Amino acid sequence: MAAGDVALKLLSHVYWHRKAEFMYGEDTYPCWTLFAVEEGRFFYGINEQKGEAGFGDLVLCPPHVGFQRRTLEPLSFHFLQFVWQSEPNGEQASRWSGKLVIKDRERLASDYLYLKQLPGWDEESTLHKQHMLSDMLRLIQIERERKDEFTSESDDLMEKARQYLTDHAYGSLSMLDLAESLGLTPVQLTRRFRRAFAQTPSDFLNEIRLTRVRHLLEGSTLTLDAIATKCGFENGFYLSRVFTQKIGVAPSVYRSMYRV
Which end of the chain is more exposed for a tag (fewer CB within 10 A), N or C? Predict the structure, then answer.
């Protein structure tokens, strides 16, 4: 398997929405199995690798290896199983096993949206889903190659910033306080975060918040003000403005698309 080769065949895809807990705390699969988190967090263990995963993280388990998992909060995720056209082995296989982080959250969110919208398992839909999966894995490859351009100190510091934003996304959050806690000015934080993750801290934060907003618009009857409170926005008016700008349609129009 060449370093840049992510050719694969998709075997199955299931989307789980706000799953409270896994049926089994550990399981094994006969093929490569990917947990792609859209919302929420869960604990995972694969061989010696253990940790937590949330939005932006893909957790990939090789065939016939025990996959430990436990939800830490209601979990929305894509469950995908596939085989490589050229099976990785040795060091290559270990590089694909465990948590894989995608920095381009906007591209990832788009892939997730297409995966959810594609109907059934007809030939055309399956090929499209396979393309979305390949796109996510290719992003991993591209970002790995770019990572060598940055110092480990910069990566570590910005990873701390990313983790803080993820953990505090739905509450009151000050970018000034975050920058000062890292020993940076707000301008330095924005520049270094953009260099590391190809987006500003504010854009990253909005993506996390808007993911939850979309779920609440799809699956609840909460008012826009109530949704704003749950997702870290000041009020429904401001949420509506951000949502329309980022998603391309007003929240009311988006909600109507999911009414049956």
Answer: C
Work out the widest C-alpha separation in the chain, in whole angstroms: 53
Residues 234 and 225: beta-carbon distance below 8 Å: no
Contact 146, 197 (CB under 8 A): no
133-154 pLDDT per residue, tens? 999 999 998 887 776 554 444 4
Helices (H), 30-174: 91-96, 105-117, 123-147, 152-167
Please count the other Cβ atoms lying within 10 Å of the Cβ belonging to residue 29.
15
Q: What is the mean pLDDT of the chain?
A: 87
Three-state DSSP class for 80? strand
Which residue, among 10, 64, 21, 16, has the nearest Cα to 36 in the 3D structure?
Answer: 16
Checking if the pLDDT of 4 tops 50, the result is: no
Q: What is the mean pLDDT of residues 213-233?
A: 91
Cα Rg for the chain, rounded, in angstroms? Answer: 19
Q: State how beta strands 42-46 and 67-71 pair.
A: antiparallel
Contact predicate 101/166, CB 8 Å: no
Torsion of CA 248, 165, 102, 211, to 10 degrees: -30
pTM: 0.61
Structural domains of the chain, ranges and CATH numbers in brackets: 8-147 (2.60.120.280), 152-256 (1.10.10.60)
Q: Which residues pair with 46 in a beta bridge?
A: 49, 67
